[in-house]
Amino acid sequence: MGDLKNRGALGVGIGWRPEIADAVETLAGVDWVEVVAENLCADHLPDSLARLRARGVTVVPHGVSLGLGGADRPDAGRLASLARKAEALGAPLVTEHVAFVRAGGPLTATPLLEAGHLLPVPRTRDALDVLCENVRIAQDALPVPLALENIAALISWPGEELTEGQFLTELVERTGVRLLIDVANLHTNHVNRGEDPAEALASLPVEAIAYVHVAGGLERDGVWHDTHAHPVPRPVLDILADLASRISPPGVLLERDDHFPQPRELAAELTAIRTTVETAKLTKPAKTAKSEETAGMVKTAQARGTAGATEARAGTVTAAPSRPLLIGAGARTSGGPMPAVAPEVPPLPRTRTATSAPEVSPVTPARNPSGITASDRARQRVGLAQAALLSALVAGTPAPEGFDVRRLGVQSRALAAKRADVVAKVAPELPEILGAGYRPAFLAYARTRPMTDGYRHDALDFVEALLVAGRPEDPAAHRRLTAWWRDRAGIRPPGPAARFAHRVRTALGRGGAEVAGP
Q1: 209, 211, 239, 438: which could join 183 in a potential S-S bond, CB 3.0 to 4.6 Å?
Q2: Helical (H) or strand (E) element with 505
Q3: For 191-204, what is each residue's pLDDT tens digit?
Q4: Which fold has domain 2-314?
Q5: What is the pLDDT of residue 272?
Q6: Residue 372: CA atoms inside 13 Å, Cβ hemisphere, count?
């Protein structure tokens, strides 16, 4: 990959994580690093990243919480934060995902739910229209180009209208966005959804690729789990080789998010990646007429990327005809992994109580106001479908019609396990206080309590639920957990919720006696 580096491309890199910061600084052959954007503060970069930047190492922020594939327009605050971080890092681009991470809220008149994970968007015209508009909004808000990653998925949407290649190609044509292709995710979708990686690569606009992700996982009970916590398997390297035989990737990056190995093992994986790409380049066939045509199309689309976004807002770009989501007539509604990090949320204290699970009632279409646009109708259709799916996954409501119920169960358990893992990282005192009882207690809580406001608040809600129930029974652990909760709960505004919280705190002061509801 040296010749790529000489031409100003990224080269071979590794995902920077605090746990391996020292190793990353000393590893040979690391041309660049990628950092999870939500783990950064633009005004105070970690010393390790500052040293890498001083050495001339490129740092790319990788977002996980925008949810550009969701029904709502991107949150302006999240976009502004991502823009500040890109500028602070001097990044040449920023990356995100073709995914949704939350659903519900005013658009659908249903409770707002957080997945805590990247979930697949339906490959439909409605979803594509929504995604394209969201991408244009993001492009206008960001100071550098945007690239979007294909995700791994355990589940498939029924009634899809496009293949992933068709979906991503049209996305590139309409927005000029670049692509971040994760070959480990292609392998995951091959095992879990029967999608042929070679066919997927053949149908992608590979000339739009900004860089490539490589990661490990494991297979359990016939399901591939994209863990980012295991060595890169041979099939993933084979897909990387296939991609590199089609086009020289500007950059390739090794992702590792947990169970970090010794530096020598990371170095060996980087060497395997570099060797795979260099070897594949020797067998690269001549471009076909189709790829030449696609290359021209991609260059034209990227050249008009920002202008296209501005025109779309001015109403001079005509969207593709809107079509309804095909999730089955009379569908029963309302009922992993990205890097295991928490979506960016304000620091504690917080201002709300969570003493009972939010009621998740069946999703029904909200009454459309007079003059609603076709774009808003598409957003509502996408929003209703996504809210129904997410409600089934995290709130235990019935599965929407057409979904594989067994697979939904696998995904639901995976989401709950990830919540438990991330809360343990956000609040490491909890597994220390609760010991072996932490995980079963959290999973029992998660079965009836969907996450609505990020992992830090999830930790507080979990502890509050335990204390209200008089747990843990061990007096010393109960006192420690009570002190932990009091230190972080903050002052709450007056009102019924505050009065109930006061009764809870009073009861806790008497030793955690049972408290009646409001």
Answers
A1: 239
A2: helix 496-509
A3: 888 899 999 999 99
A4: TIM Barrel (3.20.20)
A5: 96
A6: 14
